[in-house]
Write a structure and sequence with these properties.
Blueprint lengths: L1 H21 L2 E3 L8 H17 L2 H28 L2 E6 L6 E10 L2 E11 L4 E4 L5 E6 L8 H5 L5 E4 L2 E6 L2 E6 L3 H30 L6 E4 L2 E8 L4 E7 L10 E3 L1 E5 L4 E5 L6 E6 L4
Antiparallel strand pairs: 1-5, 2-3, 3-4, 4-5, 4-6, 7-8, 8-9, 10-11, 11-12, 12-13, 14-15, 15-16
C-alpha cells in the first residue's frame, strides 16, 4: 500500500510539473537547476519501489530508472551549458514581483538574453513569453559590463503598476506584466515618451553645432550637456550621471551623429573610446 501511495504521489508531482510547463508556469526555486531535483526524486522513488516490490513491478521500476538516468545526465549538462543567472525586483505597488532570467553567450559578438517571470509570492512564476529581450553587441561596441548592467537592472523603475522600465545599453526597454489591452496602452505612452526624447536629441545636436553652452538633456540615465570655451573656441559634450550609474561612463565627447546602418544615434570621439550607442533612431 505504501508503495502504491509513493507511486501515486510521484505521478501527481510529475503531472503537475508537466501541466505547469505547458501553461508557462514554473516553481521559481527550481529555475536555477531546471528539473534536476524532480528527476532525482523520480529516480530514488523508483529505486525504492524496485527494491521492495514484486517481480513485475520491480522490472517496470528498473525500466523507468534506465530511462530517467540518461535524461537526468543530459538535463544536468544542459543546465550547466545554459548558465542562466537570476535576480528578482519587487514592486512598490503591491506584493507583485518580476524575476529576471538572463545569460550571456559569445560567438564573435556578445548576445544577452533575458526572460521575465511575473510572480506574486515568489514561489510560482508565469513566464511572460512575449516580453523576452535579446541584445547583440559587437566586439567593437562592447562596454565590458555584466548582463545585469547591460539591461540596467540596478536603475530599473516601475513606471506603472504593471510596467517596468529598464535603461538598457541599447535603448529603453519595457516589460509589461498586465494584460494585452493594458500593455497596448502603456506601449503607446512609452512610444510618445521616446518620440519626445528623439526630438530633444535633435534639438541638442543643433545646440552643439551652434556652439551653445549649458544646454542639457537626459538619455538612459545619462546627462548630456553642451560646453563651449569661447577663449579657445572649442566645444564638446560633457557626459555625466547621478552616482556614476549611467550606461555611459563620465567623459567628454565631440558630437552626436545618426547612424542609419546601426539604427542608433552615436556619441562619437569620446574620451574613453571612439563611440557609444546613445539611443535608437526610431521609437519602438
Amino acid at each position: 500500500m505504501n508503495t502504491k501511495k509513493a507511486l501515486y504521489l510521484l505521478g501527481a508531482m510529475d503531472l503537475l510539473l508537466v501541466i505547469m510547463h505547458f501553461t508557462d508556469y514554473f516553481f521559481l526555486f527550481l529555475k536555477p537547476t531546471g528539473y534536476i531535483f524532480p528527476l532525482i526524486v523520480n529516480f530514488l522513488v523508483l529505486a525504492a519501489v524496485a527494491y521492495r516490490s514484486t517481480q513485475l513491478r520491480k522490472r517496470l521500476s528498473i525500466v523507468g530508472m534506465i530511462v530517467i538516468l540518461p535524461a537526468l545526465l543530459f538535463h544536468s549538462f544542459m543546465v550547466m551549458l545554459w548558465d542562466y543567472g537570476y535576480t528578482k525586483i519587487d514592486s512598490p505597488w503591491n506584493k507583485q514581483s518580476i524575476m529576471i532570467e538572463y545569460r550571456l553567450f559569445s560567438l564573435g559578438e556578445s548576445t544577452y538574453q533575458y526572460h521575465f517571470y511575473k510572480t506574486r509570492f515568489g514561489i510560482v512564476g508565469k513566464l511572460l513569453d512575449d516580453q523576452s529581450i535579446i541584445m547583440v553587441i559587437q566586439g567593437t561596441e562592447h562596454p565590458g559590463l555584466e548582463a545585469e548592467e547591460i539591461l540596467g537592472v540596478d536603475r530599473a523603475e516601475w513606471v506603472t503598476e504593471n510596467t517596468m522600465r529598464f535603461p538598457a545599453w541599447k535603448g529603453m526597454k519595457e516589460v509589461h506584466l498586465g494584460g494585452s489591452e493594458s500593455a497596448r496602452g502603456e506601449k503607446k505612452n512609452i512610444e510618445e515618451t521616446e518620440e519626445e526624447i528623439l526630438e530633444e536629441i535633435e534639438v541638442f545636436i543643433e545646440k552643439v553645432e551652434n556652439q551653445e553652452d549649458g544646454h542639457t538633456i537626459f538619455v538612459n540615465g545619462n546627462q548630456l550637456a553642451t560646453r563651449y570655451d569661447e577663449a579657445a573656441d572649442e566645444s564638446w559634450i560633457e557626459v555625466t550621471s547621478e552616482g556614476e550609474q549611467g550606461s555611459i561612463p563620465r567623459q567628454q565627447c565631440t558630437r552626436i551623429v545618426p547612424d542609419e546602418e546601426r539604427g542608433y544615434y552615436m556619441l562619437e570621439e569620446c574620451t574613453h573610446r571612439w563611440e557609444y550607442p546613445l539611443f535608437p533612431l526610431e521609437s519602438s
